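We emphasize that the prediction below concerns an isolated chain of 74 residues; any contacts that depend on oligomerization or on bound cofactors are therefore not represented. The input was used exactly as deposited, without trimming of termini.
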Amino acid sequence: MSEAAPYSAQEERAVRDAAARGETPACPRCGVAMSPREVGGGSFGLGYARRREWLICPSCRRSVLFDRRRGTRN
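Result of the prediction step, given as a token string:
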């Protein structure tokens, strides 16, 4: 079984934009609602802690990871 091709930059941007509007993004490839996963950053007790969100398509397993505050990749 081969790995699915990742989203294009335009597809990732559409997913991030939908999330920023408070919508549940749909997978640009298969149209299924993406499942959110919060990802913490930094070590406990340190001042640095990025708030990231990881959106995963439960159907095709493609995903988008972005910094929630800025709405950008990694």
